[in-house]
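Input:
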Amino acid sequence: MNRLFPSLTVLFVSFFLVQCAPKEPYTDHSSDLQNEFEAITQILVHDIFSPPVAARVYAYTATAAYEVVAQSHPDYRSLNGQFHDFPAVPAAPNATEYMPEIAALQAAGKVATALVFSEDRMQQHMDEVMAKLVQNHGKEAVSISQAYGEIVADYVLNWAKGDHYNQSRTFTKYEINDDPMRWKPTPPDYMDGIEPHWRNIRTLIMDSAQMFKPVPPPTPSMDTASVFYRDLMQVYHTVNNLDDEQTAIAKFWDCNPYVSVHRGHVMLATKKITPGGHWIGITGIACRKAGLDFFRTADAYLRASTGLFDGFISCWDEKYRSELVRPETLINENFDAQWKPLLQTPPFPEYTSGHSVISGAAGVMLSGVFGQNFAFQDSTERPYGLPDRSYPSFTAASDEAAVSRLYGGIHYMPAIEIGVSQGRSLGAYIDTTLVTYTGNE
Amino acid sequence: MKGFYSLIYLGCCTLLFNCSSEAPVEALFTEMDNARTGIAFVNELQYDKDFNVFNYRNFYNGGGVAVGDVNNDGYVDLYFTANQKSNRLYLNNGDWTFTDITEKASVGGSQSWSTGVAMADVNGDGLLDIYVSNSGDIKGDSRANEFFVNNGDGTFREEAERWGIADQGLSTHGVFFDYDRDGDLDLYVLNNSYRAIGTFNLEKSTREIRDPEGGDKLYRNDGDRFTDVSEAAGILGSEIGFGLGTTVGDVNGDGWLDVYISNDFFEKDYLYINQGDGTFKESLEEHMRHTSFASMGADMADINNDAAVDVFVTDMLPQGVRRLNQTTTFENWDVYQNKLAWGYYHQFNRNMLHLNTAAGDFMEIGQLSGVEATDWSWGALLADLDNDGWRDIYISNGIAHDLTDQDYINYISNEEVMRSIVTEDGVNYKELIDLMPSKRIPNYAYKNVAEGYKFVDRAKEWGLSKPSHSNGSVYADIDNDGDLDLIVNNVNQPPFLWRNNAEIIHPENHSIQLDLRKKGGHTIGAKVYAYAQGSLYYAEHVPMKGFQSSVDPRIHLGIGAHTVLDSVVVVWSADSRQTLLNVAADSLYTLQNEGGHRASIKVPLQEPLFEMNATYGMRTENSYSQFNEERLLTTMSTTEGAKLALGDVNGDGYQDIYQCGAAGAPGQLFFGSDWYGFELALQQPFDEHAASEDTDAAFFDYDGDGDLDLYVASGSLEFTAGSAELFDRLYKNDGRGNFRYDANALPELGLPTSSIAVADFDQDGDLDVFCAVRGIKGRYGVPASSLYLMNYGEGMLRNERQTTRGFNRIGMLTDCDAGDLDGDGDFDLVAVGEWQGVRVWINDQGAFNERTLDMGLDHSQGLWNTVTLEDLNNDGQLDIIAGNLGENCRLEASVEKPMALFVNDFDGNSFSDPVLCSYWGDTLFPRVLRHNLISQMPYLKKSNLKYADYAGKSVFEVFDTTQLERSALMQVQTLRSTVFFNRNGQFEHAPLPLRAQIAPVYAIKAVDVNDDGIKDLVLGGNLHEVQPEWGRYDASRGTVLLGTANGDWDVVETHKSGLNLDGQIRDIQSYERDGASYLLFSRLNGPMEEYRITK
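Output:
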């Protein structure tokens, strides 16, 4: 009888729910949104999205969720007039059953489904969520809200079409030449440079990709007296003398979505979240810890992902301007042919460090939402078997993310330091320029 | 010498026995039941979490087979190696039963993992010894090679240590041969690297650094012991040697045995040319233009009966579409260019058939002959399986787990597994392997159907198509009935014994076999020449070959319908030979070498048709990657310059030459003279237009002042339309050969001209120009308009729109020519191009009307590079000679099953997407790999998330039908270079012989080479700028076709023509100087070469 009892309860409850709206409906839709972003992260990993392209999925998904909120709640300002070319979307329905949470979840889900490749997996997640919401709020509320979510999603997707993403698939590939100081593909698989034209993607808030153009890197030189050479040797010696903590830091922030592993005669790809995915994970953790309601949660995702999106454009603009060679290439060519960095060198130019730029930007954006000294425990890497790490603030976390690239042996120090400041500058600009929540803290 | 051989007539009792006891044979081969033969051996493999393909790279390489008569009873016996179990020796009872004598003979081996095996009489006692290679054991205390010396009483003693050949490396195979011709057998041991793949830094090749632990070794036999002489002999033995095949033969015919080493993975193969002084010189790049990438087993034997050994090397390319899409990736252009720069040479993923020019140089014709794709292949055997006188190719293949399944690599979604790999915790590899797909596939048996130039897979018809994972394989005449049976070692499946029924299926064919013996010595390296009524059959005696195996040591020669050989010449060694006359077929001859007189066998030298005379200039093509711009392109079109213009520009009676320059380098004018041939003309105005890529040039008098001016066409799709680099140029001659740029002569159109045709088309007394346009930059497949420049007199040529109407959007033209095709006295036009037919426009009073279809030129769509008009058959009518891509290419095209190119903006991003398709079976498939397609059109990833989703889809399943219907569709119906004979205005298609289809033809010269009054053809070509997926087209060394009275062509092989051209030929000119005739060849990189015609 014990075993039967719970299912009877479920039957009874669902019967009750279908019949009439519950008195105290399930309200934790904030975690629904967090779960939706986690589902997207898993799909992006599975589908092998590169870091800039993954940031695009996060940003447009968050945009859809947030715009529903903005259209539904007076304390939130629309993105129309704020994001470049962002359209005026129709107002939210004026029906009592309408629930902006459901509409936002639906809008985000539809945009994500359109942008990822494993549509079925995203659809399956959405079906489960919506089934639960039907149970809680009734069919009527869900279908009215869903319908509006769809409308907003269509506006967002239509707007997304104008960002040059599709055109840039056919743009010319990165061209290699003989210049020893210019970036070239790296071991073990010598993959092509990814996204050489990402600067052509429409920014969200920044005026242009060049708005936060960093100073050029130290002049590349193998002159032992040069600054550049000193930085190169720093990478070499640091990696050769890593302590356990440094190793742990490097691995924690690796965030390489595609690492090829050769074992015996077999080649495998191990896949992880992207740097942007890591910060989306942190956003979810912070929302949970701060107990933000659904609307503030949607706002947090929007602000974080806007920083990531423009951050990648700014960073990639510089990468394919300076086209700086990776430390692995120079070390192998000049003094240690067999040297390998701790982390696999990712397939794009060195300067500035992508993780540094976007971590700097995300740190500023999240500090804006949660405060300067918001301590948290970062469990994002648990699925990959890595232990949690704790940080007193987003700034501290972004500092660690940045320096991890030195320990990993894939960046020189200037790319890290200047990268962080590039990210923080653009983060600060976006934080002031982008107005979303106008209510009281 | 007659008395020194004995004759065994093949008993018909064997034959009777076979016929009476079994069902009638239906196929060439019958699988022998292992329950009856008594062969219980199985190479069973067990992987577990500690020992598997993840930590031992060569886990699935399988075992080998050795054949030889160890007890001298007249029947060859079999030795199988097993990886994890005991090796087995079976005595042949002569009736297709065998007796396992492993235990009694003590030859099972005691090491943990055996690989290759060789049988040879190493100590010269008349008894075959067995050398087993061992590997696998990672710790290293159980993998020394073993040497079983035959005691002659059915027992063997293991003496590897005592002989100094207990090699400790990860050995694949050992091959015995006499490299220093001192009369004893030396040993080459092929060792595979210890180091894990993926730990190498490719930029710094360590090829020259000997691996102290392993590396290939050459052991010199010093009588009672072997000495490691690897280093002194020039043998490479580095950590990057992933040797899977050692193949020995005399590739350059100098009497010294050379060695071909197949290297797996990124390292290039080696071709060691024996220097005759105890050393070898690794000279692969001097003799071969490219090799297979993951080179595996190989064989060396004569497949075209020209008495020179050819080389066949296996790789892993699957046939067809589905498995190719599922399991294969290719390097991209940039990685290929890098690896070239780092010294890994040209390597492509497919089997290679290297045809020996008989001068030690090779032409790779694997795709022409149809043997390039046999999946994951190990054994390669060149042997005449049906006794028709031409060697066939048998390939054993299969891998127990599909290690390269792309979905496996990209989507093993097991999170636990991923985590354990990432964290480097202990991974349970067994679980990972259990997830890998596994598929048994049939082996291949290719019948030689066109004298070595074409093979057809007959595995099914011959009864050899049972699916398996097969490794080492051998041929042997198990039942002494004059044909070759096949024995194949399989993984986790009993070995195959296939009995050959040639004596029943092909009673019209015959063979002979030779058992070469020498008292107190060996006969390896002996050569056999058998002659019968103008036919020649050739063999070299080196039985260790294929993959990890050792074939029947008796030489077998299929001789077709001949029942008697006029003579058989056995060249025992450099100083000893023997001739047998009137040798009856269907017999085994045991020949004893008793020493003897000095031998010198040389095919009598004919005077070659051509003799190299001089070289001029030094052209260098600029580097440019069109692939960066257009991802779906398979070949570049930016290297088609290097054309020549010929004429006497200074009136001294000698022909002068202008050679087109590459982008960034000016063209060059050479003055002809009597003594010096050609001399560079200085102070010419070409430097100012150096930025342009010259694509064609012609000397003609455009301004009517009586001297030859120079028109230079500018082209190449590396320049944007309208740019100054694309302006064609006219240089005015002052009558003494001094040229001056005439800026007003031509309109500034800025189109990529590919070729010009100059004639007085409108018959007004001055010369007009037709300009063929190559295409539109960045828009492959989109047709471009060509144009007509009318000469208005006074040195002005202008674009004549009225006349040009017929040339609007006609396509990607590569070449054109003008001549009177319809015999009405005016100049008509012929033009060819990529995805174009051979098209003709008839001149009707200055208006051009296309008459391609009316004149019988339908079904001529090809990938044409060049066209020439010439009256080949002296009937007073101009014939068309057109150079195509040729058939040494992975794709096939016919009128019924054309190649197709759909051009459309499929993803709506305002860029055109050209999708290459071809038929496999009856279905039209996109021939673009999934990841290349989705990187151009990401939306396709949704419907093709996994490789398996895409692998078997036709183009109609990948793309929306309405989209395809709205696409521009272009076709290729023939890849063959062809002559179109003009039969009173109807053109008859006459494809050139197979031999002329080995490479793309870019230059054609019709000239009477042998002075018989009939025009002959000299062709040049090759194209190197090809995506590695398809591999560069480089087989041509210049083709010479002699015209015959009945309109056919006699092919002159390279060693007889004297023409041996390197590189990519783009033009050929002929002229006379001081009574002698010459041909001048112009190529992209390097000097022009002038050959004198000797007749």
